Amino acid sequence: MNNFELENELQGMNLLRKAWGLYIKNIMKIICIVMIVALPVEAIKNFLLIDIDIGTITSRTVMITFILNLLLSIVPSVIICFMFPQMMKERTISVKESFQQGVKFWPKVIGFGIIVKFLVIIGMICFIVPGLVYTTRFLFVNYIIILEGTYGNNPISRSNQMVKGRTWEFFMILVSIGLIQWGISYFLGYVIDSWVIGTVTDVITDIMLEFTTVLFLVAYLILRRYENPEQVIEIDGQT
Q1: Are residues 155 and 144 in contact, defined by beta-carbon separation less than 8 angstroms?
Q2: What's the average model confidence in pLDDT over 124-131?
Q3: Which whole number is the average pLDDT over 101-120?
Q4: Chain centre to alpha carbon of residue 74
Q5: Is 201 exposed, middle or buried (0-12, 13-18, 19+ CB in 10 A)?
Q6: Which of 10, 12, 18, 101 ranks highest by number of CB atoms within 10 Å?
Q7: How far is CA 164 from the centre of its chain?
Q8: Residue 41 reports pLDDT greater than 60
Q9: Where are the transmembrane segments (predicted)?
Q10: In degrees, to the nearest 5, what angle opens at C-alpha 185 toward C-alphas 180 and 186?
């Protein structure tokens, strides 16, 4: 792959089209993965927060919500990060096997995730823009942990290097997808006020959110293929 082909594949619409095709092709597996985790977690979260005014939220509620959101942000994406490259190598892998294999990555993903969130918070405090840059530059951290490992490899530094030069392009994609998800979630939550409906709405949002996982996983694999065509995972049978 030459530089022209790389830029063409990473061009916004081409990247979105490729990721959307993979997402739709595997939508039932994605729904299954998200439902196993998100349905109980979102139900607990919505039940706990129903009828709670902002002024009466306790530290315990904040902690519980933080832990539940941590589960939602890590578990489904780690399973998908493990499952998709296996399927791209034309290996049949079940959702159960994906969960079993993905579990071993949780400690490292959580550890590096905490570091990333800390850096993003510090960046947000420093005039916001650095926080937005860090959010985008560290998009590949989970993929690197799972597909490259951490032995002799710093996922945060590696992700920063891979995304560098495409920061604002990836950031605008993040913003666009985020606005769509927020709009749907806000509309459904505004029209129907119930913790049960709120749970369903949040689960739907979680399923949509995994499109972002697939999208940037595809971008990561394209960049890896450009770096070393002989040692990377194929995408849609391309070499």
Answers
A1: yes
A2: 80
A3: 83
A4: 8
A5: buried
A6: 18
A7: 19
A8: yes
A9: 20-41, 61-84, 105-132, 138-156, 168-192, 204-223
A10: 100
pTM, full prediction: 0.79
Amino acid identity at 135: T
Euclidean distance between CA atoms 136 and 188, whole angstroms? 28
Quickly count: other Cβ atoms within 10 Å of residue 34's Cβ: 25
Residue ranges per structural domain of the chain: 3-104+156-227
CB 82 within 8 A of CB 102: yes
Amino acid at 38: A
Q: Which residues make Cβ contacts (< 8 Å) with residue 147, sequence separation at least 6?
A: 81, 85, 220, 224, 233
**Alpha-carbon distance 185 to 226, whole Å?**
37
Do 46 and 195 meet the contact criterion of CB atoms below 8 Å apart? yes
Token pair listed for 51: 């009828």
